[in-house]
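Entry type: protein chain
Record version: 2
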Amino acid sequence: MNELLNGDLIDCNLKSRDGRVAAEALAELLLKNGRVSDKAAFLKDVWEREAVSSTDTGIGVAIPHGRSQAVIQTSVAIGRHPEGIFWDDETVQAVVLLAVKDDPEGLTHLELISEISTMLMDDDFLEVLFHAEKDDLLNEIDRRLKEAK
């Protein structure tokens, strides 16, 4: 699999429908997998970014993200709840949490958002994101990232 994502960073059955709690659960996955060194510091950066403008895309996906010194390895964590997740005033089908290692130019951050955004513009990908089992979702993301290179 690619260096951004593995099966341990995907939870298709989050316990909470609350967006903040969902993001915290995904940040915990990042911490447990050695992708962030400090969950609280990382989430502080995520919530500061979220305060600027909502990361709800309007297509059933929220993409909270943080460029943070607490990030050890740039990574993606994905979560779903069978009944959807409350994000701001909407319900989303998936939360895609981006953890970006703080680099001076921020290029990794922009490139990662661009790659994810491109995938989200494809209805076939959204179907996989919203409904596929973890392994199928992981394989589809991996395939698309390889094709993008």
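Comment: The chain has a mean pLDDT of 90.
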